[in-house]
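User:
I would dearly like some help making sense of a protein record. Take your time, and here it is.
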Amino acid sequence: MQRRWVPAAVVAVVAAAALGGPLRSCVFESNLHPVIAGQVYRSAQPTGAHLEEWIRTLSLRTVVNLRGEKADDDRRWLRDELAATERAGIGHVSIRMSSDDLPPAPTLRKLVETLDTAQRPLLLHCAAGAERSALASAVAVLLATGDLSAARAEFALDKGFVRWLNPRLPRVLDQYEAWLAEQHATSTPDRFRDWVATEYAPYFYRARIEPLGAPALLAAGAPSQLRFRVTNTSREPIPFRSARDRGVHLGAHLVGPDGSARRELRGGFVDLALAPGASVELDLAVPALAPPGAWSLQVDLVDEGVKWFGALGSEPLALPIEVAAAR
C-alpha cells in the first residue's frame, strides 16, 4: 500500500476540532484575546471586515502588523488592512518579525518603542496570532507590569502557541530572566527597557571588535595583514570554525574611494568556542589595493549562511584606510 502523508495543517485542524478548547480559537476563529484589558489586544490576521468591526467595538487607535511591510507591497491582506485603518483615521505600524526565530536587537527595540509610544487601545497581530503575537504580547506585559510569569502566559496553548513546534521565541524571556539573576534584581518595566536597550542579543550575535595591527596607511599594490581583538559580549559561546562554509568568521566589507570597489573579506578561520567575556586575536588578509585614496573597511563577524552580526544589532568596527601611491 502506498503511504500517504497528511499535511501538518490538516493535523492541526483535526486536533483543534477534537480538543474543542485549546487551539480552537486559533484555527477556527480570529484568535482575538486581550493582553492588557482595554489597552492591548492580540489576534491572527484579521480580514478587512473583522478589523473594521474591532476598530469600532474595541475603540482601537493603532494596529501593529508583525508580518512586516516592504516597498510596493501588494499583498491583499495588507491592502485591506491599510485601507481599514486609513478609513478609520487610526495609526498603523509594521514591524517585520520572524515566526520561529529570535528578533534582531533593533527589531526588539522598535517593538518596545512602538508599545511605549503608540496610541491605545492597540492591536498586535501576525498570521496565526500564535507566535509573533505571543512574543509581542509578552513584551507588552513586561513593559506594563514587569511580571515575568504573566509574560510567559502569553505563550499559551489556548492562544495557539505549541512549544514543541517552536521552542525558540520564549528564549527572549529566558535570557532576560538569566540576566536578572546575575544582577540579583527583580523584574520591573524600566529594568526590562534597559535590558532591551543595552544587553539583549539574539543567541551569540554580539561582539566588540578592536584594531590591533591595523595601520591607517597602506601602500597601493601591496597586500597586507590586519589584526583585531574580538571579545564576546553576548551570553553564549561564539562558534568559530576553520571550515570556510560554516560557523562564525571574522569578516569585512571593503569599499574603495569612488564607492564602487566593494569586496567581502574573510579571516579568523579557527576552531574555537569563544566563551562569554573572552577575547581572541584574529587576522584578516587585505588584498593589494588600488587606486590610491580613502578606502573604508567595516569589520564585523559573520555566521556563514545565516547573518552578519551587525544585522542583528552588534556594532561593527568602521576603519578608515588611506591607500598611498607606491613610490
Q: What stands out?
A: Residues 133 and 219 are 54 Å apart (CA to CA). The domain at 207-324 is CATH 2.60.40.10 (Immunoglobulin-like). The chain has nine helices and 16 strands.
